[in-house]
Amino acid sequence: xxxVLDSAGMRQADRITIEELGLxxxxxxxxxxxxVSSAVAERFATGGRIVIAVGPGNNGGDxxxxxxxxxxxxxxxxxxxxxxxxxxxxxxxTQLELARRFGVSVHDGSEELGxxxxxxEGAAVVVDALFGTGLERPxxxxxxxxxxxxxxxxxxxxxxxxxxxxxGSSAAVSGEAVEATLTVTFGALKVCHxxxxxxxxxxxxxxxDIGIPPWVLRQLARCWVVEGSDAAGWLSPRPRDAHKGHFxxxxxxxxxxxRAGAAGLLARGAVxxxxxxxxxxxxxxxxxPVQAVVPEAMVDPLPADADGAVRxxxxxxxxxxxxxxxxxxxLGLGEGARRALETILExxxxxxxxxxxxxxxxxxxxxxxxxxxxxxxxxxxxxxxGRLLGRETAAxxxxxxxxxxxxxxxxxxxxxxxxxxxVVASPGEVPLVNPTxxxxxxxxxxxxxxxxxxxxxxxxxxxxRQAAVVGCWLHGRAAELAAxxxxxxxxxxxVAAHLGMAERELREGT
Length: 510
Description:
Helix content is 42%, strand content 16%. It has 510 residues and is α/β, with parallel strands linked by helices. The chain has 2 domains: 2-222, 3-Layer(aba) Sandwich (Rossmann fold); 228-508, Ribokinase (UDP-N-acetylmuramoyl-L-alanine:D-glutamate ligase, 3-Layer(aba) Sandwich), CATH 3.40.1190.
């Protein structure tokens, strides 16, 4: 897994490296500047001017060191100092003195924004060395105008560590921020690099080794990005002499008249993810369409109300044969659906995954899940997670990492907070971020397929955390594979059809 740090963790990593291990801070700064200089030279420089916008603190020091290094390598690197020279301290002040001694062009833009605007005219690239990971408040005053000037320049923008205006600790973007083409960060990824909306400001992200030991970074991880080898290690083996009884029986309580597709997609995901048996318990009017879509699944009719949704009874015999249960997609929000959910929560003690309508019925009652001993997974999209927590969707979108952790803490369940960079949070565990997926998953039914995949993995004996991580990886990778055939949205049924290919790829390590 790849460690992801927040700003506090990165400060601690710097402190340990400098104070406890004895590597001078100026050495770290030189290495950081060299990493960005090389990236700029390799990707953008074509003989044109490289303008480095220099702010206060160590980020500005990195920029001044870059200007000197580029100058020594024969590039037209120049610095625009956007803070008074006398305000620079420590290593940043040392770098300013070195830049001047080495003959670097340093322009004083601390008073007049026009200096920066003039230098940007005709330049090849601009480097954002204004503020680093330490900035934890929105930009204000003159700095907003500086950022706007950089963003409106039309030039490629390289951000040093993080785009200025973005916090290294959060996915949220509060106010104006640099829109980078490339971000070169140091030591490890930061939260803002892996989770939107902040990650959308970062452009391509490169991680540079500047001398901070990897064991220091690992112990300070705020979250982890899952790698294929991690997901593969949690896949259950399928012995040559196996039979369907070895791989569990998922019972899915889903669908109603007019919403049979949701149940069918869930079942298709479960079948493709390897459940030995899949049964769909659905309202009587949805039985035929589900059976037609997924002939591999058994379909059990449940008594229906006049509106075509389940009445809420008849579940006990079906639960008796399950090794895992999934509930929610297409179920409805009426009293019958509520009774069905309560029956499962009261009488089913095995592995459980809740999605869609089941989550809406659970809104404001996350603590209802705390007594469960078996693996329990909830798979909300941002609006559903907001309803579970009693907050606005926008607040969840701004920081899914924090929202997922709160939901896991309050429910005792593993929370799959869906979105670009799906977050998997389990009580007492460092959260995980799934890197697979594509914009094609923004399509109706995609979440139903994921519910089936996670349910199938639970039925095969995976823990809640394992089922969530492997399920998200396979689901996202299937969408990536399918995207080669589609220019926009990928139909959920096509995602389900590519799950087998994604699993084979994962098992074979390709």
